[in-house]
Amino acid sequence: MSACPPDAGFFPLVYDELRRLAAAKLAGEPAGHSLDATALVHEAYLRLGGGAFADRSMFMRAAAVACSDLLDRFGSLTSHHIANNVAWYCLLAPRAVANRAAPVRLARLAVNDAPEAEKPTFLNTLGAALYRAGRSQEALRRLEEGIRKRGGESLPQDWVFLAMAHHQLGHHAEARRWLDQLRAYRANEIPATFWNELEIRLLRSEAEAVILYDPAFPSDPFAP
């Protein structure tokens, strides 16, 4: 889950944070270089968050390119907020990154370095990363840990990965319970929450494809 305030969307926050970080990083470059902080982030941002996609396959291709760019440019940084948000950005679509260990590493860094109050958000990201890496039992433990640290409160971004992780482990009743909770969720219509709601709809469509439409569906439900 992205480390966004309740009234902000994921993509604008990632864009702003990465641009600030890029500016700081480029400050150490030799004089006369042609790089620009905005240009460094803008292409990847537009390809996923700022673009309009005709179909899911176009989104998947754009996600793969954008996430590869982010990991190449920011995957070695140690800021826990940036690590979490880059990891989460790379988890919004199945197989968005070839190296599935990279988001796990970034998410672990974020959890380990985060203040206690922020750990539930980062544990959600770590759980999602572990699910994408095929480590569903570990994913469940981390997702459930985050819910406990939130005082028992769970969010749609928890429900989707709980549902898919349980399904991957063969816990079909539990998977369906979490999916039903996700499908009963009513989107917030406040304009400021648009990106967050779009993120939830995207993940919900994947969970429905995995759990409902084919009991033997592959881990990448949108592969050709």
What is the count of helical runs?
Answer: 10
Largest sheet: none
Task: Give the CA-CA distance, first to last residue.
Answer: 27 Å
Mean pLDDT: 75
Count of domain modules: 1
- Content-based structural category: mainly alpha
Provide the low-confidence segments as ranges. 4-14, 39-55
Q: From the coordinates shown, what is the CATH architecture?
A: Alpha Horseshoe
Percent of residues in beta strands = under 5%
Any idea what the radius of gyration is?
Answer: 17 Å
Order of helices and strands: HHHHHHHHHH
- Strands, total number: 0
Question: Helix fraction?
Answer: 55-70%
CATH class membership: Mainly Alpha
Global morphology: globular
CATH topology: Serine Threonine Protein Phosphatase 5, Tetratricopeptide repeat
